[in-house]
Amino acid sequence: MTSTSYFQTDLYQQKGATLYTEGKAENYWHVIHRAAGSINSSPNDMAKLVQLLLRRGATSSAQLIPDTAIDRMEISATTLGYASGIKTGYGLANYTSGYQDSRVTFHGHNGGLFGGLAELSYSKELATGYVFMINAGNWPAFDKISKTIRAYLLKDHQSNNPVPIALPETFKHLSGYYMPINHRQQLARSTTTVFGVMKFYSDDTYFYQQPLLGGIEPPGKNYAINDKYLIDSATGLPAIAIVDDPIAGKAVQINTDLFQQVSPLQVFGLLGLYGLLIIISLCSVLAAPVWGLRRIIKKIPVDASVWIRTWPLIASLFFFGLIIATSISGLFIHAAGTISALSLSIFALSIIYPLSVADCVRGLLKYRQQPISKWIYWYASVYTGLHLLMVVHLAYYGLLALRTWS
Hints:
3 domains, five-stranded antiparallel sheet, alpha+beta
């Protein structure tokens, strides 16, 4: 791979493609996580890499890598579901996936950064593979290209789908709500345990999975050919198994993701917490100008009722600032991992927010004997109570006084 490098070489400066985000040219990315996401290469060189993987580590003149090493790269041997027969998921920097219900396994990797996306994929069954790169951050186009290529490679393939058996009782008993427990990014735990909840249900033959808040249309429809695992009807590959996690206990593995059952109270309680806090904050933002204008027109002096309504609203601004800052930290990894405006903002907001909530409580206690409308006082109390629950929620996941730099 003579044109391939990890840096901005002279050859890259001469022939490298310019990356674009919404039509705007991007500067060269010096990615700090080499080699992940920082390979500069040509289609010809990447085709050589695909050939090496298809030939199980051999070139036309030598066996550069043992074929057993290639085999090991392609499997998720350390996952709990591997022993049950799950074949999809993430191996050693090598994803296993499928296409529709073809039952054909594809291996490889994809990814991208601002202005550029790429995919390398190959199939042992088809004895072929492909690489494509686009110099735009257009994920919908990228997805269409990938699916079009796979459909073309499979156009003459005759799939032999097995007949589903009656769904084993062990899988029928999984109906309920499940949250992810093996998070790729620890920072995302507080939100994925709320917005990543899956709903499982079944009939006599099929096991269905669907994100509680939508996202899969129609629901995943999986079936059994034995009592060990389920076939993902979207790919035709073994993908779901019941496992015993040494820490969490009984769990369900889907590809390489683990899910554990949670009570509806926990699921809808957390959704309600986020939903109510967002709704009441928006109502306060919309009502604040009305309150202020009314007081100005009627020349009503500022009193305790103003403060106990204002403090929770200010706390909301800090909360949403924290959520936004942490959400975009994944897009600006270098800034998040060093002392910068972003990392310092996250740190400051994750301290100021709980302190502002404590000040809300102080205000409620201070003015509880003041002649304030009971409706205003209860409104402020509920608003503050929601903030207190959110502080406890964030504290549980270690998101207070959060320092992201090292």
